């Protein structure tokens, strides 16, 4: 094992009017600290904060912002960024810090406050993740994932009904998650009749724009029992990249960075994925849950849509994918998403996930993606 | 020692018209790689990139951008940010990565392309580093450092002539540095007669807006001799924070985060600062070189201005401060500055600094600051 996670917390996700990222962070942090009453905040040696964009709140230096909010100044506090993978990058940074011996206990934070801005501004801020030439030519995230979807349909025979099923499943899971942004169940007909955003993707194929924060406390394994009897363990971790420009990629229907990150993380964890019963993966668009289920090896290449088609990714299916509701329903405050995935896994592995609890889950995988599979961070967890 | 630095490189700093940060990075990287012909780029395990703002080039994901530019995809590549301390944070991240055992060789990169934007846009992007209430009330960087200067003048008797002497020294040093943004010598009269930006700071008390990039290769100490006989060693490293809001600070004339980072780094290095003969410190404004010389312990509290007044910080003075010309003359492409400091120290400790070479320098200190002393990273180097 690399490190232990002794606590985690998450704000309610959604359109959190009149709350800044600072306050959303505080909400997540308070829950987190309440789980570990023996932890004095002065024992936290450093803070890593993932946030995607400085546009939303006209703010950089989120490391300082977070540290100041909860009295961690003068500790080291640093922002990390990799678009929507910022949250998992913050966790990765905290893990590496503890592994290096620099600190015993480190706080990882993800934050984003998006809904106070217009959709135009959010779209513009997200487009900054793309390659310059592709930005100029108008490639937005929905259009990028639409191309991936078309490629997958063409090569492997996936259908818009398969994509819709991902949305239906994740909305069902979200309806069981009191912190989810969208808690409304929907039908396949709802998805198929929703407005086309970028064909074949419709409104319900797209994750919402959300506000939120999630946090986790990383601890040197030898010290974890001082704070909790039910820490979860990070067994493996890896990050990988692909080209920013899609024009440089060989196969739009294959998320290569995700596949590499997943393989490496499992190698470090010395385990194969058949043991994994839960995966929180980056379903910013429904097609991406299918692509990532292939990259993670839950399905063979080109057969990810068969998993959802056959109901194998539902809670207590062969592999429970996105029991939290995923980005699709739990919500997608970009910089917070990676740690929101970890929060769900933290609850699930401790048996605290309530109505959406997956039974007999000993191992879990998180896949958080920034850009269009441009940077991916994978973590493998155990009890 | 923590790690070795086996190579470094820096672009020419300045107004680099028609070049993007990608091309400036490539310039720095090529110099860096030419110093270590035995290093195959495939041996680089990860990349950390410091950049301050996404505004200048409408770009996030600089980790990917850099990795893609020089063929490092699919390696892990991550952006870190702490305003103008982003460069030293990238180095710190690379060091921690190697210390953790994750990778043996890691590339640290700093980049910023600022001059293609108007001064208004740059000012606005920099103000995002401040506390929200202070942003709204119009506190720009020059006005913040002006308040610090006034406080120091009032408490300790420093004068505008002392500040001017910092500018004159650093312009002299810059005139000896062929990669400096400003290579023109100036007089005290030039400084005092230049336009007031925020009293007592005049135009020549302020560092310029620059484009540039700097890089360093961090290596596990045991492997360094495979690549070079003249690696430099990182002996100590620390980061510390202060509150974002100045209204929360007790003493505007005391950079507390810098003092803590410096003390901790020296403690880790197990050395006292009397051995240090070279310091590259964050003179974004002339007053700050004085404040940081106190924080680093080169002068007692309240006596930093006496060092410059008595000429003790000139090249081959008691302590050579900013032999590169500092931010003031070498230039200040925000995210690159921390690694530009390291590049200078790399040259100096190897005896490759040409006309500005400090004699018998075995140890050196770098202090890189983000925001108004809100986050500071300190590194102590030896040969």
Which key terms come to mind for this protein?
alpha/beta; Peroxisomal Thiolase, Chain A, domain 1; globular; homodimer; two-stranded antiparallel ribbon; 383 residues; 12 strands; 2 domains
Task: Explain the overall architecture.
Two copies of one chain form a homodimer. With 383 residues, chain A is an alpha/beta fold. The first copy, chain A, folds into two domains: 3-118 and 210-232, Thiolase/Chalcone synthase (Peroxisomal Thiolase, Chain A, domain 1), CATH 3.40.47; 130-208 and 235-382, 3-Layer(aba) Sandwich (Peroxisomal Thiolase, Chain A, domain 1), CATH 3.40.47.10. Helices cover 37% and strands 19% of the residues of chain A. Chain A is built from 13 helices and twelve strands. Chain A has helices at residues 21-34, 62-69, 86-100, 119-127, 132-136, 141-156, 160-175, 188-192, 256-269, 286-295, 304-309, 326-330, 334-350, and strands at 3-10, 46-50, 76-81, 105-113, 196-198, 201-202, 211-219, 232-241, 278-281, 320-321, 363-370, 375-382. In chain A, the strands form two sheets. Chain A has a ten-stranded mixed β-sheet with strand order 3-2-4-7-1-8-12-11-9-10, with helices on both faces. In chain A, helix 3 packs across helix 13 (334-350) and helix 7 crosses helix 10 (286-295). The mean pLDDT of chain A is 97.
